[in-house]
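Minutes, project check-in

Agenda point 3 was the complex the collaborators sent over. CS summarized: two entities, 622 residues total, and the question is how they sit relative to each other. Sequences were read into the notes so everyone works from the same version.
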Amino acid sequence: MTSYALKRLMIALPTLFVVVSASFFLMHAAPGGPFDADANLEPQVLANLKAAYDLDKPVFEQYVIYLGKVARGDFGPSIIYQDSSVSKLIATGLPVSLRIGLSAIFIAALLGGTLGIVAALRQNTRTDYTVMAFAMTGIAVPSFVLAPLMTLIFGVLLKLLPIATLEPGGSLARDFPAFAPMTPYILPVIALAIPQVAIISRLTRGAMIEVLRQNYIRTARAKGLPEQRVVWRHALQAGILPVVSYLGPAIAGIVTGAVVVETIFQLPGMGRFFIQGAINRDYPLVLGIVVIFAAAIIVMNLIVDLLYGLLDPKVKVDA
Amino acid sequence: MALFQAQRDAQLQMMDAAARLRGRPLWREALERFTRNRAAMGGVIVLSFIAVMAVIGPMMSPYTLEDLAWDAIGVPPSFENSRWFGTDDTGRDMWVLTWMGAHVSLTIGVMTTLVALSIGVIYGATAGYLGGRADNVMMRFVDVIYALPLLFFIIILVTVFGRNIFLVFVAIGCVEWLTMARIVRGQTLSVKRKEYIEAALASGVRTGTIIRRHVIPNVIGPVIVYVTLLVPTNILVESYLSFLGLGVQEPLTSWGVLISRGANALETAPWLLLIPATCLAITMFCFNFIGDGLRDALDPKDR
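CS then shared the predicted structure for the full assembly.
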């Protein structure tokens, strides 16, 4: 198990390095720079600006300087938010994104898994068809359609929840003050979680149906174990393996989904900074966010891999 | 005598059945299974309708893409004046826009899938065929980039190299080949070692026949299924980019562009979001039903 964990870590670190390098050179391979929009700058001003952001040096030198800074946790100054450094922007955006993203993953795994198990246990019944129809809809209706619709229904028409703000509001916050701090996050988290709930429930259903047909499940039933124990102890352990291995891509999906959801709900998270930065060619900001996102995804993947190693007996034998 | 006759009849019948079983082409059997699947056939019919409308739809309307009707801004859908899908906030006809968008979205979905298919099949088949260390290195590489937030790379690519529709094709295609490569590689590996290949070899079947009868049918099934699932994924990726303003640019339109514009006018003109969103969702359903139907039809395990 330890050597398996080490092997995974050995993959994770170079991956992060590859991400940083690839995005750095991609951004610098672009024709045009961040100051092209200010066409009528004095040449001297432009040169000073470029020098301030190290843009006057050869690309490779910039790369080395950048790597050194990143290693010390300094992502440089932002170009569009001129009074702020990238690290400061990340410090304000990351908590918002983390809160939304982690809640969405948690809900997706829990709700998706439960729905999938229920559907598998009641295969080819009305319950099963309902769950699968919901899952199909969740896959077919993208979050950038779902989010505006939910905003209209729950925010504008019913006035249940606040929209486009981090301040608590809406009638839900008034009627249940205990939940008030959660209210601004409810719609974004739902919009983010539903596609993943749909995928995970389909995956779990498929895997559980396959497992429930296995011989050892028949054996467990034949030796008279109560159904509860057969399902929750014997079937589930194998049935959730595909779900655990899907959690990696699910996290990547949620991170990319967060970009759209934060844009729609106008939340000051990482995703919105990323789009702002990308559109305005703010190299340091985009790079910094890519590095943080990639690091988050890689760390989560590492955790998922280790979890998989704990759950799947085959991995232990291999290692 | 009569008993003998009956016996012979039964024997003949059995031979006949055996002959029919042997003579039944694999593909016809799969096709039969597919056509029996009502959801999948419904998907094919509706999708064909959308595809045909993507071509002839804009011509059916008296309006064109360039018509900006200042006297008909934000008209809801109605049969009056042939505004079947209404007009948007600049007075453009939504019927024309929706089917033009269908054209662009479907084209992007299919083209990007073709790019992904070519890269994925070549890469995966090479890795699977070579095996050993080359396979190991090639698949490790895939593992590494699999863990990355690839959509960000598309976004960086598109912002850095300009918002150009061909770039969107290439960027999506270049990013979405990974799963294809994994599937093809796994299939190649497993088919290479299968007993039925060995059996066919041992009984002296020619290589060409083995490839045609045994390898291709067993490799291609999951690939076809994945292709039908990749087309809607890529349509979604394009919509996602267009929604963020990074995909298809005006005056060209796609469902993502229309949804993005509609989302901003949702309170005053809900049809601007609902019509393209419904078209997109129906297309997603169709592709998914067809994919599921193909999986059931082509799965050799079920036979």
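Noted in discussion: Chain A touches chain B through 47 residues (CB under 8 Å).
Follow-up: revisit at the next meeting once the mutant set is ready.
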